[in-house]
Amino acid sequence: MNDPNGEHSAERRQRNTLSSRRSILTGGAAAIVSTIVGSVGSVSASEHEFCPDPSTGDRSAGGPSTGDSSDSDTSDRKTLTLQPNTAYETEVFVIDAPRPGPTGVVVGGMDGNELAGIEAAYRIREQELERGTLVVLPEADAVAVEQRTYNSPRGNLNRQFPVGQPPTSSLAKELWNLITSVDPNVVIDFHSSKGIWGSDLGPDGYGQAIYPSVVGDSRQIAADTVEFMNEEYIYGAYPPAYQFTVGNTLVGDKPKLIHKVAGDLERPGYLTEVTRYNTSLDTRIEWTTAMGERLLRRHGIW
Ligand SMILES: [Zn+2]
Question: Which CATH class is domain 5-53+74-298?
Fold first, then answer.
């Protein structure tokens, strides 16, 4: 209701882009190689990869230690599949930078109608990485994303991660196994919302905020990132209500992914929200991508 008319055509274009990209990726990855990695489904190499090592995290494969220095300045890329051969089948992109460093996990598509986070995850996945490891899951709930609905018939994926207990669906279990297997230094979960957190402008909602986990310096890093976002994108360009803020700290035993990352792994995590209120999809993608990259950089991954 509150979105300008242009939004709908933009979202329609976005749907087409996402659909075609997804099918291209599925075909390309499946054509190379497939093997089982623990409980995480299949792994396959990109066309750039000479010899995939199923024991992911082995950065020496194809790298300097093999004596082949020609690969040392490009990232090593692998693709994993969660929920293979089901309607929920979805791809995970693992990018190892030439220089070792911390590991970051980026998740989009927990809620299927929040397209900005999906596209931002794809953009981050496409960037060249210099340092660290990135694990990117753009379409977490592939059924919800396919249907462009908030949730899929299995319910809200981001309520299936109870702290101190196993995740409550097979998809949530596989996603959690993936996260624990890569032992992340930071996890970022992209969302968008109808409204703006703490503002009277527009409908109620959670947008224009970063919700940090209780762990470590997360709240300070969120504050720094919020200031960066406002200086780069908001001040002078949008009404004050659009200024990014730091949301409440994700603490306690609520069953969102970032709660579990904090509670069970005691690792930093962030849930980011942009608003759909009078913003274009392109703008929301730009903001979400910038927030994600800034947060990753603050955790030593770039
Ligand atoms: Zn959401």
Answer: alpha beta
